[in-house]
């Protein structure tokens, strides 16, 4: 038998949505089901990605690097190459080189020349997970899968591999800043990003005519251990002397030819170092000759030149520019000017305009434009083609490490930048605490901006259909946690119903990251909320197969709930844990969990939680082939769900009831129930409904179209009578 959605779940605001079975026949074809499908709007699948277009290429300031592009393109022409990884230290121009190749192929395709059919650019962000990347790639090559997040990691990889191997559907996928996936900045760690090992293994297989281009600081592969590697590395080191000279001249650096050549030499041909050097000249007004030869600037060219240039740039920032740089360093993603302004002032541009403060806005916009023009700030076009701004990782890292340390010339007695002293002591404990407090306060300001934008960017709860609809809320929560406002973040998460939505959409990795940032040792919550969140994390880790982590958090939750005599919370945790035990085949322990949960509910009844426990007991009985008991449990659970008007859970129970009838060879009755379940789940935009559709396709293929169509008609004829045994009339519509 093909199994149905063999899952149960606890209450909507205290547990997790059902994890769909993956044992359906995955043949994709027309679904011959006589029900009216619901028209769905196309979804943006770019959640937590920093950009879906390459960096802007200004021909006046961008070196074309033709020889290197030709080399990489030649590497792709090798049939034994599936992926090329551009590696090198930060600032060598890996992203720009990838963008130049991407634009060349775009132009070739537009002019009818040989080029991949699909060109997809994805810039990875601080919180990007592997399922985010796979979903965005599939959408970009016109093979979207709404149920992707609910599949197991190996099935997600298989879906991507099949799509990339399609004949005559070649694609070039660019994954920029891949190092963020290898070494995430967050507490969530690499494990929380998804099955990275499986993805890296996939890159070493045949991708057909498709290719993947990645940029990273280094390769994650040990090439000595791979006999026939399909991922080739290309080291990006420096630009040539002629290119370096041209870059400086195009950026307005004036000086004798030998001086400009000397700058290239002192910068070791490092692209971003040359950009910083030109920016310093523009911001300081110092001549190139003075920068190269004045005694007070000799320390600039010794040691770590990039860091010295960043220090010098900070020294020559005016107060408004300084505020812009520090505010922008707090953001993990490119941000519109409104976000930078509100982080600095705590007020919106519109509000300042109403107060007659146009001079403040004008000064801010002028300095933002100046910093962008000289290359200190990078301009990024987002998915809506709205200008957004970001700092280069090297500049951002330095600014955060020295946050709110005023080294500008206005606050210094010296007339030259405070060059690093290798003998200097680190900051005192008091200074370190002050800096940490400044960072915390800064993230609170950033969170206030995103919270302000929730009403503008996020649809009402009942209209949300994807992660893209709640991205602003999630970013707010992250900055609240960085601002040590953990309880506020927890309250907002549950007020906005994020738990239920993200579980239903399969965003388990992202939700784990949010929750663990609130729990000790990183955060602090009220004991009742701590137990509740720990219970959720235990369930989520169980869902992604991290069973040891799951047990740790379940034990933590039960300890907190028993200590606080929170019987209802304990019942929820036991139910969630029981569901995972059942899925893992530990039936005896699972049954004990559900029965203990039902006993705890005798003192404090919860109809929805009771429905969940009964549903799970039904699933256990069905797996043990005790069909009578399974039927009784399902019917009792269904009556409670319909009484509570919980259509989502009603649709899930109906699905499993239909599967039970099908297993007992009651085919007409089974289809009558399954059609009702499918219609209900489609109307709720349930992404797991596609699995039920595939199961019905498999039935047709097994029976033959003629017999299946006749059976469908007979099932619909008896559907009202069949449903009347289980659900109230208003739930059958």
TrEMBL record:
<feature type="repeat" description="TPR">
    <location>
        <begin position="611"/>
        <end position="644"/>
    </location>
</feature>
<dbReference type="InterPro" id="IPR019734">
    <property type="entry name" value="TPR_rpt"/>
</dbReference>
<feature type="repeat" description="TPR">
    <location>
        <begin position="571"/>
        <end position="604"/>
    </location>
</feature>
<dbReference type="InterPro" id="IPR027417">
    <property type="entry name" value="P-loop_NTPase"/>
</dbReference>
<feature type="region of interest" description="Disordered">
    <location>
        <begin position="1"/>
        <end position="25"/>
    </location>
</feature>
<feature type="region of interest" description="Disordered">
    <location>
        <begin position="410"/>
        <end position="433"/>
    </location>
</feature>
<dbReference type="InterPro" id="IPR011990">
    <property type="entry name" value="TPR-like_helical_dom_sf"/>
</dbReference>
<feature type="domain" description="ORC1/DEAH AAA+ ATPase">
    <location>
        <begin position="82"/>
        <end position="188"/>
    </location>
</feature>
<dbReference type="InterPro" id="IPR049945">
    <property type="entry name" value="AAA_22"/>
</dbReference>
<keyword id="KW-0677">Repeat</keyword>
<feature type="repeat" description="TPR">
    <location>
        <begin position="531"/>
        <end position="564"/>
    </location>
</feature>
<dbReference type="Pfam" id="PF13401">
    <property type="entry name" value="AAA_22"/>
</dbReference>
<protein>
    <recommendedName>
        <fullName>ORC1/DEAH AAA+ ATPase domain-containing protein</fullName>
    </recommendedName>
</protein>
<keyword id="KW-0802">TPR repeat</keyword>
<dbReference type="Pfam" id="PF13424">
    <property type="entry name" value="TPR_12"/>
</dbReference>
């Amino acid at each position: 038998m093909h199994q149905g959605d063999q899952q149960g779940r606890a209450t909507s605001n205290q547990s997790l949505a059902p994890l769909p079975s993956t044992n359906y026949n995955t043949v994709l074809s027309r679904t011959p089901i006589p029900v009216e499908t619901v028209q769905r709007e196309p979804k943006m699948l770019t959640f937590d990605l920093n950009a879906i277009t390459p960096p802007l290429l200004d021909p006046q300031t961008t070196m074309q690097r033709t020889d290197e592009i030709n080399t990489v393109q030649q590497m792709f022409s090798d049939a034994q190459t599936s992926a090329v990884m551009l590696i090198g230290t930060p600032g060598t121009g890996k992203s720009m080189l990838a963008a130049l190749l991407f634009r060349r192929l775009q132009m070739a395709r537009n002019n009818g020349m040989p080029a991949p059919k699909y060109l997809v650019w994805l810039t990875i962000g601080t919180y990007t997970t592997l399922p985010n990347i796979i979903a965005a790639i599939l959408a970009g090559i016109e093979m979207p899968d709404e149920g992707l997040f609910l599949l197991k990691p190996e099935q997600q990889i298989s879906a991507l591999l099949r799509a990339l191997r399609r004949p005559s559907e070649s694609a070039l996928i660019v994954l920029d800043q891949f190092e963020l996936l290898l070494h995430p900045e967050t507490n969530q760690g690499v494990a929380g990003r998804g099955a990275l090992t499986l993805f890296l293994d996939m890159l070493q297989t045949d991708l057909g005519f498709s290719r993947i281009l990645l940029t990273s600081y280094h390769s994650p592969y040990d090439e000595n251990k791979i006999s026939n590697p399909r991922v080739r590395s290309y080291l990006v080191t420096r630009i040539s002397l002629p290119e370096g000279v041209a870059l400086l001249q195009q950026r307005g650096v004036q000086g004798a030819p030998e001086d400009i050549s000397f700058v290239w030499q002192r910068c070791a041909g490092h692209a971003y170092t040359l950009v910083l050097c030109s920016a310093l000249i523009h911001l300081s007004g110092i001549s190139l000759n003075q920068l190269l030869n004045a005694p007070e600037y000799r320390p600039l060219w010794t040691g770590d030149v990039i860091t010295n240039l960043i220090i010098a740039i900070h020294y020559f920032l005016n107060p408004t520019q300084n505020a812009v740089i520090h505010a922008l360093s707090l953001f993990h993603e490119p941000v519109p000017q409104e976000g930078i302004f509100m982080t600095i002032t705590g007020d919106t541009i519109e509000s300042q305009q109403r107060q007659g403060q146009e001079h403040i806005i004008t000064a801010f916009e002028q300095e933002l434009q100046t910093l962008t023009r000289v290359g200190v700030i990078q301009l990024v076009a987002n998915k809506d083609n709205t200008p957004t701004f970001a700092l280069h990782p090297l500049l951002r890292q330095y600014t955060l490490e020295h946050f709110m340390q005023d080294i500008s010339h206005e606050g210094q007695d010296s007339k030259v930048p405070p060059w690093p002293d290798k003998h200097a002591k680190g900051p005192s404990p008091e200074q370190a605490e002050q800096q940490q407090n400044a960072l915390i306060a800064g993230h609170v300001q950033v969170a206030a901006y995103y919270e302000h934008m929730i009403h503008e960017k996020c649809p009402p709860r009942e209209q949300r259909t994807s992660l893209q609809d709640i991205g602003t809320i999630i970013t707010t929560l992250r900055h609240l946690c960085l601002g040590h406002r953990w309880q506020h973040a927890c309250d907002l998460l549950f007020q906005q119903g994020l738990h239920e939505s993200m579980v239903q959409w399969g965003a388990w990795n992202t939700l784990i990251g949010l929750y663990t940032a609130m729990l000790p040792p990183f955060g602090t919550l009220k004991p009742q909320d701590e137990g509740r969140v720990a219970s959720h994390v235990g369930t989520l880790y169980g869902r992604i197969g991290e069973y040891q982590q799951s047990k740790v958090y379940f034990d933590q939750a039960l300890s907190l709930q028993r200590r606080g005599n929170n019987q209802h919370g304990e019942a929820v945790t036991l139910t969630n844990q029981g569901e995972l035990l059942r899925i893992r085949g530990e039936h005896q322990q699972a049954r004990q969990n559900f029965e203990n949960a039902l006993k705890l509910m005798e003192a404090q009844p919860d109809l929805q939680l009771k429905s969940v426990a009964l549903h799970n007991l039904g699933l256990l009985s069905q797996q043990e082939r005790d069909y009578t008991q399974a039927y009784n449990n399902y019917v009792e659970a269904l009556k409670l769900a319909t009484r509570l008007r919980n259509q989502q859970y009603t649709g899930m129970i109906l699905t499993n009831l239909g599967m039970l009838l099908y297993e007992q060879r009651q085919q007409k009755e089974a289809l009558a129930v399954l059609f009702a379940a499918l219609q209900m789940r489609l109307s709720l935009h349930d992404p797991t409904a596609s699995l039920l559709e595939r199961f019905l396709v498999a039935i047709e293929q097994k029976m033959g179209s003629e017999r299946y169509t006749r059976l469908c008609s007979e099932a619909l004829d008896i559907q009202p009578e069949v449903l009347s045994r289980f659900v109230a009339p208003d739930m059958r519509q």
